[in-house]
Design a protein that fits this description.
Elements (H helix, E strand, L loop, with lengths): L2 E10 L2 E11 L4 E5 L6 H9 L6 E6 L2 E2 L2 H4 L2 E4 L11 H11 L5 H10 L13 H13 L5 E5 L7 H14 L5 E5 L3 H5 L4 E6 L2 E7 H8 L3 H9 L1
Parallel strand pairs: 3-8, 3-9, 6-7, 7-8
Antiparallel strand pairs: 1-2, 1-4, 4-5, 9-10
The structure holds adenosine-5'-triphosphate.
Length: 229
Amino acid sequence: MVLQCKDLVKKYYSKTAVNGISFDIDQGKIYALLGPNGSGKTTFMKIAAGLVKPTSGTITYKGNQIGPVTKERIAYMSTEPFFYNYMTVADVGKYYKDFFEDFDEKRYEELIDRMELNMKDKSKTLSSGLAAKLKIAATLARKAELYMLDEPLNGIDIIARDKIVTTILEAAKDDVTLLISSHLVDELEKIIDNAIFVKNGNIALMGEAEDLRVKHGKSIVELYKEIYA
Ligand SMILES: Nc1ncnc2c1ncn2[C@@H]1O[C@H](COP(=O)(O)OP(=O)(O)OP(=O)(O)O)[C@@H](O)[C@H]1O
């Protein structure tokens, strides 16, 4: 296993966003982190990315505390835009290269092409769907070991979603792990190995997607509806 968390808690003043979760994530698998708005998915990803400190509990990546070493190996794509309005698509690449040693410029060019973006486009002129694609391209151009993508399909039209899902799948290798949050469970169901259902900061259900389907006689989409109805 690569990511291990035990009794992880995050409180924002009186609000408990993550309420004592424990689970492990195995290398080389694709995980869906599922749950409605406010269930704690983003908070968990931010803790694993080293952007938010847990209130209590432990979390390690390959035995290391979350910190500078793990940040070099974990690529996190937040729901918020990370680039400034004045930047062009090319500037975003340079900005990323300055921050991350594992950033592969050639791969970025390929991904920008694939997403039908142009290096000269100004980020402030991009539609929300194109800005979402830019975030994905920049994140997947890193040669990370663990990619955590928070709502990568948000704002992306139904035609482009397949392309994004295929691009995400290309990143999946034996030594690469993916953790993807999404409300669009249909799209994720096709590609995931494991599902983690989060409810009110707790794990409501988790397991290998195929085991869950067999055990409950339901698809992941149906389980989602049942858990959150
Ligand atoms: N900085 C913060 N200050 C106060 N409360 C916060 C903060 N960040 C998150 N919360 C609260 O913690 C809870 C979990 O939020 P979080 O963003 O982790 O959920 P989520 O499952 O990612 O939801 P969404 O799908 O809407 O992004 C929510 O009730 C939210 O209001």
